[in-house]
Specification:
The complex is a heterodimer of chains A (261) and B (284). Chain A has 261 residues and is mainly alpha-helical. Helix content of chain A is 77%, strand content 0%. Chain A has two domains: 173 residues, no CATH class; 74 residues, no CATH class. Chain A is built from ten helices and no strands. In chain A, helix 2 packs antiparallel against helix 3. Chain A is globular and about 75 Å long. Chain B contains ten helices and no strands. Chain B has 284 residues and is an all-alpha fold. In chain B, helix 2 packs antiparallel against helix 3 and helix 5 packs antiparallel against helix 6. Among the domains of chain B are: 113 residues, no CATH class; 53 residues. The chains are: A mainly alpha (261), B mainly alpha (284). Chains A and B meet through helix 2, helix 3, helix 5, helix 6 and helix 8 of A and helix 2, helix 3, helix 5, helix 6 and helix 8 of B.
């Protein structure tokens, strides 16, 4: 009993998860990229993009500072999008997305724990590398890089395959909850989706807004609200205004010389 | 310095060696571990230069072992340190034997002294500013449905990757180059780029985007009634305030997710609420 498309999705997640630590950090492992890619593989890019955006927003402040290991967001978004795409054909999209996210968080946490174990195991590789360096075996020392990359890829594939299978097995529960409780649970998941966007906005505030700058947020909301109500400018135009405004602001500050002393 | 006084024939690091080392910086965290963090990555990056500078197996082994000491920093900003270390290794090899030990200590001191401040700057600049800013642009574009209408879904992730990696690869490359040029004076180069000002500017720009996002989430009701839109926006802002307070108390986003889910389920089972809210966020 396996999820359809599990193999290409697991392959993709294994490659993308290398970007989290082992290679590059080009951010191809971020939910906003993983979500639409997995959605595209399954044939629902729209669901993937929307889920990716939601996950990106909620976990925007979970950053790898020092030895802290954030939640495995590549696995979280990959599993959640794959499950949501499976459920969405028979249910409300927002409810399906919320349920898929709820199932995928513990799986992503398990993946993070797997990464901790692997990093502890890497100490052995480090000692091996040190012996190779001491004895002058340079080629072996350098090949260790490729070996560890392969190890990380295999770990990513196995975790993705297990997560996708467990997520697929949980899909029955979604239909059961929908059927037994007369749609009330599905309605709850629907409400939660809107509240999750509020949670995402809170995560951004928690990360970026300080007491000194909170006034700017209030002013922006009032300005955008006024624009939305009294002007024909809507939708993408508001984003364009914010982008141009932000660009001007950034240029203004970057151009200023840092005070010395 | 004349070649006669040096320990070995003068070996110059060329552009090809530097390019090789720069490419290897993308593998810096491959053997991330809880004992010495990025030490293997640092040695792996320096290998093309170490192989060229140190001609005898004993010297190479000694240099590699020296670089396998504890090192932890930000993966992008470490390029400032790595560029400087390559230059200092090159300088060390050109010095008389008697002074080489001192240079080794200087290299080690540079790594130890700079890894903390550089990591703090990188965390603040990339993880807490540039990445959230790029992510916020992408999320706002997704919720505006600007590209979904035409089915051009790939535009937003691609846009995210291009703007983020312009900053990422640009600073990595700049850091590596400046590190190599400035050697142990690289810390002065770091100050002149005004990263702190960029952080302030980008954070304000992010706040602007967040304001748009908060209005956006509630925009679809506006077509029905202005009063309802304002009411919904006020309610939404109040919830955002409440959640921010909770996140500020160090409750993780995952814990908050389940709390939100529980609250939403309670709302659904509340007898007076029978219909789903007017808003549809997915565009379906």
């Amino acid at each position: 009993m396996l999820m359809p498309h599990w193999f290409p999705v697991a392959l993709l997640l294994a490659f993308l998860s290398l970007d989290e630590t082992a290679f590059g950090q080009f951010m191809v492992s971020r939910p906003i990229v993983v979500g639409p890619l997995v959605g595209w593989l399954i044939g629902r890019t729209d669901i993937g993009l929307e889920m990716g955006a939601l996950i990106e927003l909620i976990w925007i402040g979970d950053v790898p500072v020092g030895a802290h290991l954030p939640l495995d967001l590549a696995m979280l978004s990959g599993t959640a999008v794959a499950l949501a795409c499976e459920l969405v054909s028979n249910s409300n999209p927002q409810a399906a997305m919320t349920y898929a996210l709820g199932v995928s968080i513990p799986l992503a946490a398990l993946s993070t724990e797997g990464e901790v174990v692997l990093r502890k195991f890497h100490i052995r590789w480090l000692h091996f590398a040190q012996r190779m360096a001491f004895n002058g075996h340079i080629k072996t020392f350098e090949w260790l890089n490729a070996l560890v990359l392969a190890e990380q890829w295999v770990k990513g594939f196995l975790v993705a395959a297990i997560s996708l299978t467990l997520a697929h097995l949980s899909s029955g529960l979604f239909y059961l909850l929908g059927g037994v409780l007369g749609g009330k649970v599905i309605e709850g998941f629907y409400y939660a989706h809107w509240l999750l966007l509020a949670l995402g906005c809170s995560a951004v505030i928690d990360l970026l807004v300080e007491k000194k700058t909170a006034i700017y947020l209030g002013l922006t909301i009032v300005a955008m609200m006024t624009l939305a109500v009294f002007s024909p400018l809507q939708g993408v135009h508001l984003v364009a205004i914010a982008l141009i405004g932000g660009f001007v602001l950034a240029l203004f500050f970057v151009g200023k010389k840092e005070a010395v002393g | 310095m004349s070649p006669e006084k040096t320990a070995a024939p003068v070996v110059r690091v060329n552009f090809f060696d530097l390019a090789q080392c720069f490419w290897r910086t993308f593998f810096l965290q491959v053997l991330w571990n809880f004992e010495r963090y990025l030490s293997y990555g640092v040695t792996f990056v320096l290998m093309p230069v170490l192989k060229k500078i140190y001609t005898t197996p004993e010297e190479r082994a000694q240099a590699m072992t020296r670089h396998l000491e504890y090192f932890n920093s930000h993966p992008y900003m470490t390029s400032f340190i790595l560029g400087a270390v390559i230059r200092m290794e090159e300088e060390k090899q050109q010095q008389p034997k008697a002074k080489q030990k001192q240079k080794e200590e200087e290299i080690s001191a540079l790594k130890v002294g700079m890894m903390g401040p550089v990591a703090a700057m990188g965390d603040s600049l990339f993880w807490a500013t540039i990445r959230p800013y790029c992510g916020l642009i992408a999320v706002t574009l997704v919720l505006s449905h600007a590209f979904q209408i035409k089915g051009e879904y790939w535009v937003i992730p691609l846009f995210f990757l291009v703007i983020y990696n312009t900053a990422h690869v640009g600073i990595r490359f700049l850091g590596f180059l400046q590190g190599y040029r400035q050697s142990d004076q690289v810390v002065l180069a770091l100050r002149k780029y005004g990263f702190q000002q960029a952080i302030r500017g980008l954070r304000l720009a992010s706040i602007l985007l967040l304001g748009v996002l908060i209005v956006f989430v509630n925009l679809s009701v506006l077509e029905k009634e202005v009063g309802l839109f304002l009411l919904k926006l006020t309610f939404f802002t109040a919830i955002v305030g409440l959640f921010t307070f909770a996140l500020h108390r160090k409750i993780s986003p995952s814990q908050m997710f389940y709390a939100v889910l529980l609250f939403a389920l309670m709302l659904a089972f509340w007898p007076t609420l029978s219909a789903p809210p007017v808003l549809s966020l997915g565009g379906q």
